[in-house]
Design a protein that fits this description.
Elements: H1 2-16, H2 35-54, H3 57-64, H4 75-89, H5 92-108
Length: about 110
Amino acid sequence: MTAANIFVLFCLYLIVSPLGKVRLGGVDAKPDYSYPGWFAMLFAAGMGIGLMFFGVLEPVYHFQNPPLGTDPADIEAARVMGMAVTIYHWGLHPWAIYAVVALALAFFC
């Protein structure tokens, strides 16, 4: 959890700092796609594949095997924890981790 929070804070720092103005590919580089095009491709690839394979599996898995010491016999607590873990897994934190890795690859390529 702490590592994922660090990634989110790092991404926010990159957005607001002067490093957010660094142009990947050099001064004269022109993007092949617009921002909406990139966001659409990233969203379609990441969410499409993930939801097709794990959209039902993940909440059910976390319901059957609740993490963080939740008692599996407590059905309501297991249900709430299963959805909470799934929402955390598909929320802001993993996308921040993906963004940092993608920026590192793009910067050094």
